[in-house]
Design brief:
The complex is a heterodimer. Chain A is mostly beta strands. Chain A has helices at about 15-20, 75-80; strands at about 25-30, 50-55, 60-70, 80-90, 95-100, 110-120, 125-130. Chain A is globular, with a radius of gyration of 16 Å. Chain B starts with a strand and ends with a strand. Classes of the chains: A mainly beta, B alpha/beta. Chains A and B meet through strand 3, strand 4 and strand 5 of A and helix 4, helix 5, helix 6 and strand 5 of B.
């Protein structure tokens, strides 16, 4: 069974609640404009606790990735090999996800990706899939 | 006038796959042996440093009683595998101010015999996860090796670093391991099929665990432990062994940041502080004891500490430079490292122990005339949240 984030964790609860409607949201400081990610209820650049959520278009670029070939924890043990990646979203925040729906060897740094939701009862998980042609390895 | 501090007693627990002992017993056995090494008694210890790994929590409280100490300093900084470099720096500070004279650092772990799933396992199960766990380890199947692999992948992308270059780090560590009887015994105890020398080709043809990291680039999971005794100058002068002076210490933190560069670690900050205090240039260092959880950790830290420019670590480690007998500086992880000698989960204390052996002239891969060493622990996850601790040591 897919492990799911715990909705009782208050810093990340708004992010995960929004996923149910396929909304990828990120907190922005109302005082200084900084993005705070992973999501928190305080700004890490200034001392403000006044943050709003904005919605990402879900388009981004692979910053780095790996192909996991060993994991003893179910259900990931049954999925190997699979891709874990840091994704730079176009709005300026970096999040972790899995790049899915492609051969792991088709993923590269600089590859354009977009969000690919998978629904669960209380939330949806924002996986990513490759869009367009694979990028040149050095960009 | 600040009082200088030196490592005066060391001990590394010989077995890596134990039965019938507890982590606490390993800590106590190592502490007693390290005090004997120095020619000191339990009653000489007035400062206790503990990473809480033996008792899980309240380490300063429980370990004082267990050892039978009445310390005037209790410190339980826990930042993962670099905890012991941080402890050494803080012990140096306490001694410098005259608040302590004999500091005891201990480590004990049963990671191997308990079947701890450190490298390729999933996240620990919590009823109350951290925000970072909710965003990373819980949903995405990112295990420890995967974080390091993403740092390695980005390093290759930005600088053209190759698997063959990373493999040089494992080749040097294995060469040193086969010269160290305890490391050979460790590899046999842990079921290594081959305990001989390895080549770059052996490393890059071992199976991929998380691309681009291969099996022979990943540390072992052992049982084990160790102890280090640090004393003030007046006590160090009368101990049994050559004192190994703490010349500088530093700490630095890193974590995932939007727009950040995961090829740079906390060693950049900790190294500048430690080398600056010591008045030593990285190019003068004979012995580099760098936490080799994975090969990429060493390559990254060599760059961040200033042994070479950022991105040039791959070329720097080529041509056998890191071997004990290369005639070039620095020699790396001369005990065999976490890759092939001892890694019960938090290796930092063994970096101090082997550096002290080298500066005393007691290593199994003794570098002629070794007089300066650097120890760098990386606690937590390279390419993600971590604390680096650097200690510069001299004879």
């Amino acid at each position: 069974m897919q492990p799911l984030p715990n909705l009782s964790e208050p810093d990340t609860r708004p992010f995960w609640l929004a996923t149910k409607d396929h909304e990828l949201i990120y907190p922005v400081c109302n005082a200084c404009g900084s993005i705070v990610f992973y999501p928190r209820a305080h700004c890490t650049k200034c001392t403000s606790r006044d943050l709003r959520y904005e919605r990402s278009a879900g388009q981004g670029t692979v910053y780095s990735f790996t192909i996991v070939r060993a994991n003893r924890q179910a259900p990931f043990s049954e999925r190997i090999p699979y891709v874990v990646a840091w994704i730079d979203l176009d709005e300026g925040f970096r999040m972790m996800s899995n790049v899915v729906e492609c051969e792991p060897l088709a993923v590269s740094i600089g590859q354009r990706v977009e969000v690919d939701w998978q629904d669960f009862e209380e939330m949806a998980l924002p996986y990513f899939r490759v869009v367009g042609a694979p990028q040149d390895a050095h960009g | 006038m600040l009082t200088r501090a030196a490592i005066v007693g060391i001990h590394e627990y010989p077995s890596r796959n134990t039965t019938g002992v507890s982590a606490l017993q390993i800590k106590a056995a190592c502490a007693a042996a390290a005090l004997e090494d120095a020619g000191l008694q339990w009653s000489d210890v007035d400062a206790l440093y503990d990473a809480n790994e033996g008792v899980g929590r309240l380490g300063g409280l429980h370990m004082g009683e267990y050892f039978g100490l009445k310390p005037s300093i209790h410190e339980t900084t826990m930042v993962g595998g670099s905890s012991y470099e941080v402890h050494a720096g803080h012990a140096r500070d306490a001694i410098a101010l005259g608040r302590a004279r004999v500091a005891l650092l201990t480590y004990g772990s049963l990671s191997r015999s308990a079947g701890a799933n450190i490298g390729t396992g999933g996240p620990p199960v919590h009823d109350a996860p951290l925000p970072s766990e909710n965003m990373e380890s819980i949903p995405w199947g990112v295990n420890v090796v995967a974080y390091y692999a993403m740092a390695a992948m980005r390093h290759m992308y930005q600088y053209g670093t190759t698997s063959e270059q990373l493999a040089e780090i494992a080749v040097a560590a294995r060469l040193h391991a086969i010269r160290n009887p305890e490391a050979v015994r460790a590899m046999k105890e842990l079921g290594f099929r081959d305990v001989g020398e390895i080549t770059v080709d052996d490393v890059v043809s071992s199976r991929l665990v998380a691309d681009p990291l291969h099996r022979l680039e990943c540390c072992m999971i052992s049982d084990g432990g160790g102890a280090v005794v640090i004393a003030s100058e007046d006590i160090a002068k009368d101990t049994r062994q050559t004192p190994v002076w703490i010349l500088g210490a530093g700490e630095g933190q890193g974590y995932p940041e939007s727009g950040g560069d995961i090829t740079i670690s906390g060693a950049l900050q900790s190294g500048q502080r430690a080398f600056g205090e010591a008045g030593v240039d990285p190019g003068e260092i004979d012995i580099a004891m760098l936490y080799d959880s994975f090969t990429i950790t060493v390559l990254t830290v060599l760059e961040d500490l200033g042994f070479c420019a950022k991105g040039e670590g791959g070329a720097f480690v080529e041509d056998g430079r890191l071997r004990w007998d290369s005639g070039l500086r620095p020699s790396l992880n001369t005990d065999g490292g976490g890759l092939f000698s001892n890694h019960p989960g938090m290796r930092g204390i063994f970096l101090l122990i082997e550096a002290a052996r080298q500066l005393r002239g007691q290593s199994t891969s003794q570098v002629d005339g070794a007089s300066l060493a650097v120890c760098h622990g990386n606690g937590g996850l390279l390419g993600s949240r971590h604390v680096g601790g650097t200690v510069v040591l001299g004879r």
